[in-house]
């Protein structure tokens, strides 16, 4: 059996098409044995980067094709991040017999020069890296360092609860630099304005935070807890709870959350093998109403079943292979794009979604740890 790194696009939330390879466009598969260590979208979903045991590969999503392949390294990268579609990448070694790229260092790779031009050394293992044009954000298990891209000076040091997943997200708009990460208490998210040096703490959930994301302009924050049943949308500036979606009733691990750049949709992928797409209110940023204000009976919430109020169900869904982790993003014309599964989706009339395009980039041997998505 073969496991694959797959990029897919699905359109049509109106009818359903099974994701069998016989129904898909031609599949391009490499026969090279490359075990995938990490997969990450860039900041606007125009491309994604894959860390392998041999190096890293970069793909554009419009059109879907491989643009860069760097397999000449003697070691792999457990973390690989790209800065939009530029020539700059952040790399962290996988830590196995690796002296050149150890797991406690972040290397900034300039592909024009074909070498590392920056290097950041930490005292402990790097869990995640996020990039913004003026900042390099390095996530450790209990802290986050924000470095200036220009001179690598520490701009901010943020303490967090234990953060084994390296949860952190950074806005990308020029007007405001917003960073969101776990707070100092269970279920808490702290939102930092990196230019004004202000902090807003939000009690997002009762359980630990499992996944979070910001809009590109940093105006909205989406979160989900380790229960995986509710997705909550907050005003990132003042912490107001604006909308709440119910993904399901059973506990589930959420793999990724994305908010579309047009502020219309929220997409969630999980271990259940289902992609859920939710509809954001058109007035979500202009309306003063909060979740508590919407329900005129909020004062008796303690006497009502938890699922009986203010939980909006998904607008559209798509069934995915349960065995493969996937990270979700948004493409043009109301499409949802995913890496790691079979599916790309259009957001039209609601219901089941139809697959538009499917590409298999890497042919991989079947193992228990064939794909690790961060």
From TrEMBL:
SUPFAM superfamilies: WD40 repeat-like. It is found in: Preautophagosomal structure membrane. InterPro entries: PROPPIN, WD40/YVTN_repeat-like_dom_sf, WD40_repeat_dom_sf, WD40_rpt. GO terms for cellular component: phagophore assembly site membrane. Pfam families: PROPPIN. Keywords: Repeat, WD repeat. It comes from the Eukaryota. It is a peripheral membrane protein. Belongs to the WD repeat PROPPIN family. PANTHER family: WD-REPEAT PROTEIN INTERACTING WITH PHOSPHOINOSIDES WIPI -RELATED. This is BCAS3 domain-containing protein. It comes from Microthlaspi erraticum.
